[in-house]
Design brief:
Structural class: alpha/beta
Number of domains: 1
Oligomer: single chain
Number of helices: 6
Strand content: 25-35%
Radius of gyration: 17 Å
Shape: globular
CATH architecture: 3-Layer(aba) Sandwich
Distance between the termini: 30 Å
CATH class: Alpha Beta
Largest sheet: 6 strands, mixed
């Protein structure tokens, strides 16, 4: 498996007067192309900071972030914008849907951002929302809005899917459906999936589990035989 992501001695500091918070403290790891990776850790451990750095939403204080041979930490604003548009699909806890567009229009908006054909109905169908295609976000439940945001992220066929608690607003059955979809994208389409979560149950399904504590890597475990999401006990 070829390495697609590499963190080399990454540090991220936030300063407030004389106080320095080290959100990332000399973090190094690699992720292979098509891997299904789960990042675990308590609140404040640095999980979301890691995801934001990898996604080009934040910049390092020091160290290197290399994605598909490119040094993301050296990108200027225009390069970061292109990187986020073409390479990264974001799935956040907050849905960030455009309120005056329907679910279908929110998904098909991706075709204006990247040069791919987006069949919005097929993508919505994959998350169980084809029947809601013409509804606006305000007409959808929180879980349905989350599924639209997931559909939008996968519609542009990114090389990486970065997921911050992707099932936080979903009931258990729908959560399993979504996680199964993400695992299938890793297995069948060679999409690299990185999930930040508090849910330790997911560890058994991951190709790689990275545990973070106090901004540092606590452990990295590789599963030789990861379980299917549908086989986990929820």
């Amino acid at each position: 498996m070829d390495t697609i992501i590499e963190f080399k001695n990454v540090c991220k500091e936030y300063r407030s007067g004389e106080h320095v918070l080290k959100a990332m403290n000399d973090v190094s790891f690699t992720i292979g192309e098509g891997e299904f990776v789960v990042i675990l850790g308590p609140s404040g451990a640095g999980k979301s900071t890691l995801l934001n750095l990898l996604g080009g939403l934040d910049t390092v204080t020091s160290g290197q972030i290399i994605v598909d041979g490119n040094h993301v930490e050296s990108f200027d604003d225009n390069q970061l914008t292109e990187y986020r548009a073409k390479n990264v699909g974001f799935i956040f806890q907050f849905y960030n849907l455009i309120p005056n567009l329907t679910a279908l229009e929110n998904v098909e908006l991706m075709s204006d951002i990247v040069d791919v054909h987006v069949n919005g109905l097929d993508v919505l169908d994959s998350v169980g929302l084809k029947k809601n295609a013409n509804q606006f976000p305000a007409q959808l439940s929180g879980g349905e809005q989350q599924r639209v945001s997931i559909a939008r992220a996968i519609a542009k066929q990114p090389t990486m899917l970065l997921c911050d608690e992707p099932t936080g607003a979903l009931d258990s059955n729908t959560g399993v459906l979504i996680l199964n979809l993400l695992q299938n994208m890793s297995n069948d389409k060679n999409t690299t999936v990185v999930i930040v979560t508090h849910n330790a149950i997911l560890a058994d399904s991951a190709d790689k589990v990275i545990r973070i504590k106090n901004g540092q890597i606590e452990s990295i475990v590789i599963n030789e035989n990861p379980e299917k999401i549908s086989d986990l006990e929820w």
